[in-house]
Design brief:
The structure holds 2 protein chains of 2 kinds. By secondary structure, chain A is mostly helical. In chain A, 63% of the residues lie in helices and 0% in strands. Chain B folds into 2 domains: 30 residues; 80 residues, Cytochrome c-like domain (Cytochrome Bc1 Complex, Chain D, domain 2, Orthogonal Bundle). Helices cover 61% and strands 0% of the residues of chain B. Classes of the chains: A mainly alpha, B mainly alpha.
Amino acid sequence: MKNTNQALVAFAALLLATAADAGDVEAGKKKAAEVCAACHGPDGNSPAPDFPKLAGQHADYMVSTLKKYKNGKRANPIMMGMAAMLSDQDMQNVAAYYAAQKGLELKY
Amino acid sequence: MKRDQFKGASLSNWLAIAALSAVTATAWAEGDAAAGSKKTHSCTGCHGIPGWRTAFPEVYKVPKLGGQHAAYLIAALKAYKSGERRHGTMQAIASTMSDQDIADLAAYYANLAAK
């Protein structure tokens, strides 16, 4: 019984953690149209081969990458300028939006 | 007359060389997806498992590669190889790859049709 309670608490904590991390897809769509779409495409399937597709990419990977551009750990003149304009919440939102689009797939 | 023939031969030789170089350059740059499919042994352990997460130095799901632009994958691997882009595991793996390996793997992952 005690174990069950502990498991429930852990599960609830996990749910809360997930909810706190989740971006707002609609807000992300709006921000993406302003900041990202010109190069990465409105749905993240970028038309230019030099710019990576984002559609279907994992949201947490994109957030991690955006933060690295913003703090200078990953150097790219274009993306450092773009990421500088995004708050942490903006990053969560645009990542949630692009992750929800159809594009990239897992390939073995 | 002799001089004209020589000039003619010279021009077609140059054309042939130019054509051959173009073919060679294209073959090298495009990569061979079939060859790439046999070189994924150091990729699949992370990139081929649904929802697989990195363990260090930070935790996030490793990026999906299927359908990504080959040009971007090539640029990413070369940046890891040169150290311009930093990630311990990816730098170590990319450093073992030749330019041909990189082109082949990029061609393989860019092509979603042939799994």
